[in-house]
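Batch manifest line 264
LIGAND: zinc ion
JOB: complex structure
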Amino acid sequence: MKSFKPLYVFLLLALTAIVACQTSPTGRKQLIVVPDSQMNQLGAASFAEMKKGNPPLSDSALLDYVMCISHPLLIAAGEQPGGWEIQVFEDDSPNAFALPGRKIGIHTGMIELAKTSGQLAAVIGHEIGHVQAKHGSERVSLGMTSQAVQQVAAIVVDGTEYGAATMAALGLGAQFGVLLPYSRTHESEADFIGLEIMARAGFDPSHAVGLWQGMAKLGGQKPPEFMSTHPANQTRINDLNSHMGHAKSLYRKSQQQPDCKKPS
Ligand SMILES: [Zn+2]
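JOB STATUS: finished
ARTIFACT:
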């Protein structure tokens, strides 16, 4: 059906004109041309594939620990926890990821690295931030302005096919499980959203800085995966610190203090 491609592209451009103006939770203007329903379907399909390749933990103390932290974070973020899927994957690399459709994956290596429940809350809050700010949709939309337009057109048209370019735009690379870095803008936005969410949920926001300091210390010749997909640097820590006053005031106002014990 090659001959129909120009028509799809035309339709997409028409769609762009209609839905291009959106605003992220921090007030940043976004170009989003793919409907949420399509992105959610794509995220769910990608997550299902990942789970097939590496079945997540079930019935484990680590999963209970992650849920103990995630539940208050989602409530504080104004979300319905039941609508989210958060899974723990047996994988030593310290990493975590988020997909459209309210899917979050945490590696066991990340739980190992995050020393306190507050540090893990910073990771999960950050990933909730990527989902709430629709960073996946934005990346796919940006891809549509490049040569990826034809592959992306396939999703918009029938909602089932998706090409390598779309997977890359979701941060999954050509193969599932290969995570690509988000832009600096997306990273700092997810950091700020995550910092507020954790503070409102009753986790001390200063633990976010501790997490990134611990991450930066790991370094070495082969940086941990989360560091290459979410680079830890002084600018990031300074940015977090510049929002700390506001986050601390939210933290002081929060009515709860989740008691989540890291399994030994
Ligand atoms: Zn990130």
